[in-house]
What we know:
The protein is mainly alpha-helical and 394 residues long. The protein has helices at residues 3-13, 36-52, 55-78, 90-135, 138-148, 151-168, 172-186, 192-195, 209-226, 228-246, 251-286, 289-299, 302-318, 323-342, 347-371, 374-390.
Amino acid sequence: MRLKPILFALFVALPATLGPASFAEDTPQSEAAVNPRAKELARRFIEEVLSASHIATIYEDYRRTLREVYIPALRDMVQGDVPGVPAPDAKGAAAIAKLLTFADYLRKAGDELDVALSENREAMISDASEEIAKTATPVEIEDVAKLLKLPAVQKALDAFYAASKLLTGFSYKDSRTFAEFSAWAKGLNVDVQQMLPGAPGAPAAIPSKRKIAKAQTLVNDLLITSHLEEMIADAKHFIRDVYAESARMSEEERENLREQADQWEFTYNMQKAIVIAAAPSVVAAALTDEQLNTLHEFVRSPAVAKAFDLLRNAVKTGTSFTNKDISEAQKAFDELEKKSKLKERSAEEKAKAKADWDALIKKWTEVLKNKISPETRSGLERSLDDLHNEGLPI
Length: 394
């Protein structure tokens, strides 16, 4: 079984899906005999992995976030237009400007690379498929392809995509909402510890029932918006009832993990009860009516709802595995490993395969690199050198 070369091919072919399919460039025919069926199966497998991995969407999300969020945010920093943050001095502004320059050249390189990937998508996949077909039989390729259809593998890929949205799922407006709230919160100068009943310096006046009810509504809305109950339940179920039951570990380790999950849930429930009981009174005592309104508006803002929704989705997908999913995956990988050991290649064959893959990677690295304009390449290299010499300003 040539498992590693097949999987290694994905590192060559994955970028190729980032642009839409188009006419392929002509690729020299390999001198080695290639089984047409093996090559076709390898091509299908690569296409399926590219689709299931969400790599095209992740790459596009990254480009959008760089273009619409990070670059405008850096521009605001240079101009001193970040709420609650003092305008930088001349030296600081120059340092941030260099980071902005690098980010802008990175954006240009991404745009030009996207075109190159679109033009060469089919050719890159064809080359990778051919390399796989040189060292793997149709049966071996089908065995590896079956792994992709396992629920555990599909869920793992979905979980990675959901996690990536925590970095790329926000808009420029969202970033301004968080910056403005952060600046407002810094200006409160409130010591919550002193607001607790009986604490030194605690206010003598008791908040009105109306104000406590107002704070209670805020706390309730925060608990609903945060999805905290669902996330805690999912995490506890996965740790105790799935991972602790299915993962390969000793019985002592398994029992310890279950106990830790139960202890964690107990501690959370106890702390939650205290917070729910005390929070409305503490918040009402600490904040004015106007401040309560501002905090409530932030809790209800689209940016906060989006942040918690993205986190909820990441936790949900990351804990969606079942005992059956894990046991099936373990069995499938074990069987594949056994087949691989039965057909171990010689050192010479391994060296030849590695050299072929290295050559293919070098070829496409040069092709894609040359598709980026000299101006963009030189600007990217120059701005990166500037950052290395002076260090990141933030």
